[in-house]
Protein 1
Amino acid sequence: MRRLFIGLALLCSAQLSLALSPYLHGAKLPAAELSAQLSQVESKLKAEGFTVLGKHLPKGLEGQGTLVVSDPQTLQAIRGLGTGSGIVAAGIRVGVSKDGTVSYMNPDYWHRAYLRGQFAGTEAAVKSLQQRLLKALGEGAGYGGDVPQNDLANYRYMFGMERFDAPNTELAKHASFEDAVKAVQANLTRGVGDTHRVYEVVMPTEKMAVFGVSMDSASDGEGWWVNKIGADRPAALPYEVFIVDNKVYALYARYRIALAWPALGMGQFMGIINAPEAIRSTLVRVATPG
């Protein structure tokens, strides 16, 4: 019986060790204005070869911001995948809070989810990315819940909810890739649906692109629902809209929110029951020709 208990304990320990958290803590910054803290983090990232794509200061979530950066190795790995949906993984999100807390998306977690069956082809680039983020930002303790790593490629919050490639990810279809990009760019520049562009990565040869979208509406923007489920993970935002060939997509929120908040209780999820369709409605407007 003692051997059985020991075996079960070892099995549980092994399973736990294979679980991944969506975010990693960085070294805490000294007290300062948020703008100064973001500048400090930006300098650290640039020193490790990252390119800053944009900055997100979400409405309704005062005192926190996100820097989105890109990494040449990661972008090259995404180019080589041969499937356009991988472009959604191009932006690397780093969160900063006014109390000096620094956090960043765990590439091993997010890229397993976003690249799915093709993750193995980018694993070396992801490991390199993770090491350089650790060097730039420090520490690396995980938080935000956990998901077994083998579940991430086919992740969904619960039975009946969407996965990465659910049909309702598609927002709009255009005559060409170029038309799709122009439509999204124009709509974000005009602030359609009370949105604005945080960043963009466009790969015209591969006919794929991704845009970080800030949803700023006081009534149905990101502020209201994030405050209900936990505003302690700024590296969860911004939301992505991506283009593959002539179609515009956004991961449906019952997948994208659950992936970013995997420890979310069902009661909390029910408290934002209107968020998935509100988000999709906003992003359809961003994706549709004016």
Note: The chain has one domain: 21-145+153-287.
Protein 2
Amino acid sequence: MTENRETEQAEAWDVGDWIRRAEAHSSLVGILGLGYVGLPLGLAFCEAGFKVLGFDVDAGKVETLNAGECYIEHLDASRVAKVVKGGSFEASADFGRLREPDCLLICVPTPLDEHRQPNLAYVESTAREIAGRLRPGQLVILESTTYPGTTDDLVRPILDAAGLECGREYFLAFSPEREDPGNLEFGTTGIPKVVGGVTKEAGDMAVALYRDVFADTVLVSSARVAEASKLTENIFRAVNIALVNELKVVYDAMGIDVWEVLDAAATKPFGFMRFTPGPGWGGHCIPVDPFYLTWKAREFGQTARFVELAGEVNVEMPRYVIAKLQRALNDAGKAVRGSRILVLGLAYKPDIADPRESPAFEILDLLIELGADVSYHDPHIAEAPRMRTWPRLPAMESVPLEASGLASQDAVLLITNHRDVDYQLVLENAPLVVDTRGVYRQSDPKVVKA
């Protein structure tokens, strides 16, 4: 895979020839960013018969992958070992090799800054790395979730500065990632792939590339439409999560169990889609994507009020949970300050080791601010990662879940409902459980639902 492909591909920007090579799986696929999106995508291409050259700035990740090992818990490590041993996958931290692949798929983070505005520094720096090596015949596809116009208005000018003409000498498209870590029903390749080209040719090329890898490809008229489609998917979820979180607060004030209400409502076979309340929102998309749209809408003199309200509701949930804990401790004659609080679960959703944007970190931060003695247990996260957003959190390791340890706590705060937790053990030994996930459905004097 390391041979110089530049001479061979010097005239390969003929679209028909490019498409035929992709359909024959003879294209070399480059993946930039080997995290929760890029690595599963690279494995999918290898397993469909392509060769993949993956790039990452983290030399430790590169070394791990080239040894046939995997650092993402929910991925089967044997898949990595197989493609590395078979010679179809190689990882590299040498961005000088960006000229080798026929297509370059950008899978880098698009977080928010401290003002909840889009931070596209990773996309921009990656585009500049590509521009420095861009050659005729390459297709560049942005997969990172972002606001409509990013591909056309940010990425394209950077690439154009390389001196090649977009749509004739190089090609540019957007295809949103739709990863759902830990979802056993829908893996990477079982989810239809939306594609939008900056030009018609780029869209056709991207479809040819993805067609044999994914269950279906959905070609839309532009990169902007594809970008907006991803935001719409996740805003739909964010708004409905906010709705059930708000209902949780309202029904709790009325003495009504929201989970019982949802169980009843879900028996309707039409016109209702169940969403589940919790301690906030988490993951790489839902807490981020709505703010990308609200920020971009202001450029056009528009206010996405419904979306902004959903953001306000979800952002307030950790504080609501802390308030419920404070009242429960107060009823027991205790203050949060000096109390021993065990946070049960750090991951943003059950049964994975992904802590990105998990509400658990804000809850830990709030507890520390209030003077609590905090610890955590998570069967999937042995050591709490350092979080850019929560710099004052101390280094922490998951504590064992044992009867004596539970009994020594003043309260257990259930944040993530992992299956690999003995909830009966928790109930029998903890003096107080604040349940944010509806794990304990039967009424119990020890359990406070939040």
Note: Confidence is low (pLDDT under 50) at residues 2-12.
Protein 3
Amino acid sequence: MKASILVVEDENVIRNTLREFLAGDGYDVVTAATVDEALNRIRGRDFDVAVCDVQLPDGDGINLLRKIHQFNPKTFVLVITAYATVENAVEAFHAGAYDYLVKPVIFEDLAHKLSQLFQYRDLILENQSLRRELERRGDLERIVGTSKSVVELQNTIRKVAVTNGNVLLVGETGTGKELVARSIHSGGRHAGEKFLAVSCGTRPIEQLEAMLFGTTDDQPGVLRAAGSGTVFLDEIAELPMGTQAELLRVLEYGEIVPVGGSDSVRVEARIVASTTRDLQVEVDEGRFQEDLFYRLDGAKIRIPALRERLDDIPELVDYFVARHTQQMGKRVTGATSETIRLLMAAQWKGNVRQLDNAVERAVMLCDGTQILPTDLPPDLVGDAAGLPEADDLRSALRHYERLHITRVLKQCTDKREAAKRLRLGLSSLYRKIEELKIET
């Protein structure tokens, strides 16, 4: 793909000459004559580089630089100034400029700076990729995210893990309940012991009870085999009523009766159970034992759905890309901004598991180093929620921007907190609210 460059220059001759020169060198060039025109350009697409004049008819090129970085921090900015002073250079670098050019622009100088810039960018991307691989190596199972709901979940896990008590995990399919169970185990006092997982709804009753409680013919069952470790019971609401009664004995007295036996046996394993159902409804309708429900419900952790933590999607994508490229031996480094926007607009009925599967497929099909929208599952792209029917990309992005800011504002009681989560200045957030006509 051609590298894209936005040229912001109010003088027609200079703007057109720069466009012709850069296009002749093989770049995809877009031009703007004013700050407003430049902002419209960057709302509609991402640019690798922006070449901006400092003096513009409707604003300051340094302030435009800052706004460009708000839209896409990965865009490198070269500032054009009529006067090469130390003060101008310092101000430009403090605002985040990569370098600056002095008028009249010497094309050879511009070409040299762009060549250095892209070499520097490639080196940064390679270092980031290597750093991700090192960070992920030996750490392929962890809770990823920095959203408020995930931070609260991690804090709860840390508090619950050290107690060694039994825990109930509640959440939709694909939210990562087993991963949370493993985190509880690894944060507990018996992290060095076994972690054994059992699916409660996939076997005949006799086979399931033999697996859980063991038999008299030297089959210990997972509750004994785990020792003082952890047994994860996935979809506990699927357990038959009789098996629930046996599990209640484990929770109340720490003992089991093996299948076919009559003598009880002591067990020490910690129980972490999970469910996608409302157990109170199951109790009310006679499908779940009330005493067992109260035993489990006291230490209940709710796992948020992916739609409640959309801000974590870029980090999750980065994590899954690193994992799958390591497994497949490919050199995919990440996803384009357009791809991330589409992923953040999808409905994610299958939650994190669905996102993981989508990224795995994308890595498999990706021909370059960046996942493109065409690498995503077609049904996922078609399932993007809340986007307008119009084909105009700028309108679609503004529409999604409005939806995203509205969602964050609803989750935050204070606009300062919302601005922090959106990585915007408070004044910028107020401008967005006014510009996008968001009701607060």
Note: Confidence is low (pLDDT under 50) at residues 136-140, 385-391.
Protein 4
Amino acid sequence: MDVHLVGGGWDDALAPTLYGGFVEAAARRAGATPRLLLVVMGTDAESLDYHERYLHTLGLVGGHELVVERVADGTPFDHGALDGIDGLFVGGGPTPEYHAALAGAYPRIRSLVSAGMPYAGFSAGAAIAGSHAVIGGWRLDGVPVCPEDSNEGLDAVAVVDGIGLVPGAVDVHAAQRGNVSRVVAVVAAGLAPSGVAIDEGTRLGPDGVIVGAGHVWHVNRDASATGGVLVRVGAAGQ
């Protein structure tokens, strides 16, 4: 599957590196200027202002027609917005709300991506892409496993069914918010079979290729130790 996962963060200089591959994949699929769908949460003034960051960043890459679907809080995503698009970009913000709004569309998104449509996820959009989606929380069994600021309004770490575009769990803002420890705890507790944590300014792309300024932390169970995990870190060019 042609899946591009970005751990968050904003840097104009990195825009072509982080998003160019996604736009190019959509253009190959379209055979012309691709029609991209950007899905973002919120219709209030603050959300609309935040959405402008995506329009600006994708505008720096260019070479596409961008359609924006703004989903009001508490309402489901309209599946019809997926008709006739060449690539899907799911933005960031409140991860539990993205999951609640898009969950009904997961089977269709998975089908479209399986058929060759590229998917890009930024922050929350990356977190829900895995088979197991870490949508928030900062404590497991009452014990802190990451900074409280990463809680997304939840106390206990919540792992739900994701879109299923990549195996295991995906966490984001890895080094910047201390979330590597959360995905380590999730895998160690058996809540996901494996996981990755992606730094800001960093993209994990097709075939595991890493580009950008940071690292991707791969977490797998250690068969030789009960409850143990193995952590491997990768960066661009490795």
Note: The first strand starts at residue 3 and ends at 6.
